Amino acid sequence: MAATALREQLNGLVNSMFAEGLLDQQFQQLQMLQDGSTPGFVAEVVTLFCEDSERILTELTKLMDQALVDYSKVDAYVHQLKGSSSSVGAQNVKLACIQFRQFCEENNKEGCVRALNVVKHEYYRLRSKFETMLQLESRIQAYENKQQN
């Protein structure tokens, strides 16, 4: 498949992510930071975001499984995830984290468990689209490298 067709597919995917509310304008800011000297910048940031999010979600799941929940620890992790989400433009994850933090402030375990499930759902939805995006970018890069040789 030609690089042009792959780029169109990639642009369509990213546009659909904006339309679904998965991404906000912060992601556009990230894209603008990528140029010829840093072709893998967005992919690197997205990969780091996903790795960090996986770690945080694992910790949050462990904390919420405790009989006595340490809401200050939960809140600290949710705050960290909210910040990471904001920095990559993961709008739905960020919004879900805001709701989660409200339940933490209320020491509401049931609300926190529900909120954690919403955060996970939004994150996994986004991660799936990010994985497709990274595969397309990788294929475009491989095609362009092949053309140069």
Question: What are the SSEs and their pairings?
Answer:
Elements: H1 3-19, H2 25-33, H3 41-64, H4 71-88, H5 91-105, H6 109-148
Helix pairs in contact: 1-6, 3-4, 3-6, 4-5, 5-6
Summarize this, please?
By secondary structure, the protein is mostly helical. 83% of the residues lie in helices and 0% in strands. The two termini are 17 Å apart.
Radius of gyration: 18 Å
The CATH homologous superfamily is named HPT domain
Kindly state the percentage of residues in helix: over 70%
Shape: elongated
Subcellular location: Cytoplasm, Cytosol; Nucleus
Pfam families: Hpt
Domain HPt: 38-143
Modified residues (Phosphohistidine): 79
Describe, in plain words, how this protein is organized in 3D.
The protein is mainly α and 149 residues long. It has helices spanning 3-19, 25-33, 41-64, 71-88, 91-105, 109-148.
Keywords:
single chain; 149 residues; mainly alpha
